[in-house]
Amino acid sequence: MEYKNLTCEIQENIATVTLQRPKALNALNQEVLSELRHVFTEHLTREIRCVILTGSEKAFVAGADIKEMDGMTPLQSRQFARSGQLIFESIENFHAPVIAAVNGYALGGGCELALACDIRIASEKAKFGQPEVNLGIIPGFGGTQRLTRTVGPGKARELIYTGNTIDAQEAHRIGLVNAVYTPEELLAKSVEMAKTIASKAPLAVSLCKKAINMGSNMDISRAIEFEADLFAESFSSEDRKEGIEAFVQKRKASFVGK
Ligand code: CAA
């Protein structure tokens, strides 16, 4: 598939997906959403150990495309929300960690897209918010759920009910982003983290992601039992043998992802 609204560069086993719809500040219309779906479900292979998802300096993503939503019937809007939600779920459930490198605006669907990623790193110029109530609608790409699970109900309610935009420092303070860097440093620091993740045992990292994602939707006793199942799964891997042997032999492990 030829992408019109994004690029995907792969270096070794790290993919950088850059949204490029500058005229609309990377707003998510059906075409952008379908390219995002394609890249995560069909283009990127099991070899990828970490993905960086980023935008332009002005905007990570300024939300769902408001002009495209204009005139949608309630039924069409539900289908639009569901299709976006399923695409975001494919990012959330991608086998390797996804880092959102947020440069500028991450509003509405843009904030929700960042929330579907494992880790958010922001530039000092980034701005976050769920401004849907200004439009007479509600977040529809998972924001009411993922923002609440990420920053807790108090802050999530405030952001969603007021529609206020917060800067990167405030987003960091409330736990919405992991770190804040200058715009010049943002990508290099994201790549640095991606390389650290990519250097670890890929199957183990993938199982960690699965344990965190699936466990957070279970009650604690079931979730820790699920962790034990995945712990056992990691023990059947070649990488476990290699990792433990390398430790004992005081050498660097060489992981194959099996
Ligand atoms: N949808 C469609 N077009 C958008 C857009 C969006 N979400 N955000 C920006 N654009 C377009 C603008 O219409 C404008 O296009 P034209 O030049 O053709 O007029 C262009 O991008 C540049 O935008 P501005 O001139 O507005 O730029 P600015 O610097 O003055 O303001 C901004 C930037 C504060 C981000 C402002 O564009 C803005 O408020 N955008 C909308 C943010 C928003 O409400 N997002 C939530 C959308 S709803 C949603 O996401 C629902 C959901 O959960 C599924």
UniProtKB/TrEMBL annotation:
What organism does the record attribute this protein to? Uabimicrobium amorphum
Q: What is this protein called?
A: Crotonase
Asked if the record carries the keyword Membrane, the reply is: no
| Recorded family membership | Belongs to the enoyl-CoA hydratase/isomerase family.
Q: Does the keyword Transmembrane apply?
A: no
> Known CDD domains for this protein?
crotonase-like (cd06558)
| Superkingdom of the source species | Bacteria
**Keywords for the protein's UniProt record, in alphabetical order:** Lyase
